[in-house]
Amino acid sequence: MWRQTMKRTVMMALMLVAILGLATSASAKQAAKPAPKASAGGTLDLEAALSHGYVPAKADKTIHARIQVRADDAKAKERAPMNLAVVIDHSGSMAGGRLDQAKQAAHTLVDRLGESDRLAVVSYGNHVTTNMNSVFVTEANKEKLHAAISSIRLRGSTNLAGGFEKGASIVGEHPTDDSINRVVLLSDGHANIGAKTPHALGKLASKYLEKGVSVSTMGIGLDYNEKLMAEMAKQGAGNYYFVEDEKKLAKIFAQEFETLSQVVARDAKLVLDIGAGVELLDLHGFPYTNKRGKVTVKLGDFYARQHKDIMLDLSVSPRGEVRRDVVTARLEFADVTKSNKRVHSKATLAAVGSDDQKQLAQVDKSVMRRVEQINYAKSVAKATDAYEKGDRKEAEKILADQQKRLKDAQNSYEFDADKVSEKVAELEEQKKEMKRSRSSSSKSGKRLKKSSRKKMLDVMQSAEAF
To answer: Where do Basic residues bias regions lie (predicted)?
Structure first.
């Protein structure tokens, strides 16, 4: 009798525990809320959002995270001192006025710089020449810098790698705690001495960015390798300029100087901690490193109101917990408006596992619009590659498919109708231009490739370029 009573008591206790466990689990699921958006303000504003706040409780799901970094319109009391090297191509292809225009643009840069700035002048052909080592731009040194620029003469091939590396190493010898350290690289041709490929030269730019030296590239005319110049600027956290008319070089130099004059944040770095059970599938628009779920994106310097837009593709696997952190974004930079004080900000995005189909169907349309912009840029780049290889029909098909996709996205994700119409019309014009310029090596074909790749790089890095 006693044993039966004990047995019933134990069974009732177990049933009570089970009931309480189920109630607690149900309560936890009911109480768990996602954190699909997060932000942190400051001179650089950090804003993060997930495409989906709810993910399947028992299946893998591919979702997207959008991380935006935007500089406000604050102004530093004094602009940061510049530590620059101008690296000029003087190969034979720079004849016909191009070298003269490049030199004139460099002269105007000298006149704009002040006594707290440093400048070196490097030129390259077959060999690399340090026309003027880095000096403070005093009135006396301005005369020497002008003379060094004037001394550059046409000759040789295109040792672009050697020219860049010399300029970057000089800049790397003179950084200060508050200086902007940059190489401005000009070329009108294809690298044919030393490192020659976009990958190799991009890797070289990345190496110097790790040392604190960024690079802006200026491609002159229609015969330079735009993939190479764009990749160097991308890996080196600088600007890429397509300058078809060399007479506009002085204006482009002025534009580069103005952006550097308005820098409000230096050496920005975004570190992304990928959550347990989450896999990074891709990161669009920016170079990055991924070491065991710790992803680092070097964003370089920010000028006032500049916007950089990072998109992640993520695979989220089911786990025991109801709510899980998907990604934590940590931003670090030197705030030029606050005497280069190091600033840290953080934003964490979290999703909730669910079986509720209504919850699973919820989507952040602003994130998905950005996903479609990335797809647009990738499709145009792919079509441009096909056109370059001589497969015009494939290029036109890719563009036609993208036109349809944009129209579908307008309905699904509430794209602005006028913007969609504008982009569909641009794609149609690109198809017509490919028909008119049957050869990608024609003058119009080269212009089409360069302008298209420049625009798509800009779209990949900021929604504002779309």
So the answer is: 433-454
